[in-house]
Amino acid sequence: MALNTVNSCTNCDNLEKNFNCSVHNVVVDLNNTCESHNLKVSITKSSSCSNCSNHNTSRCSHPKQATNDLLCFDWSKGGEA
Questions:
Q1: What is the SS3 assignment for 19?
Q2: Which of 2, 40, 50, 54 is an S-S bond match for 60, by CB 3.0 to 4.6 Å?
Q3: Which pLDDT tens digit goes with each residue over 27-56?
């Protein structure tokens, strides 16, 4: 069985906080996609706060909720904790 990556706003690099699309400046839903989709390949099933470059910095948008096993939409590729 072949597995394929599905394009949706949740794995798009244009997705901002509060599910806003930075290209179209509209709020999107979990299953939306468009021709401007830009795959955010850096997020994997092992991504979490512990390997986010924003974790434990002033750039973290959820410092009170951030723990090693959580992941938010502001995740950014960083070093392993």
A1: helix
A2: 54
A3: 999 888 888 988 876 677 888 999 999 999
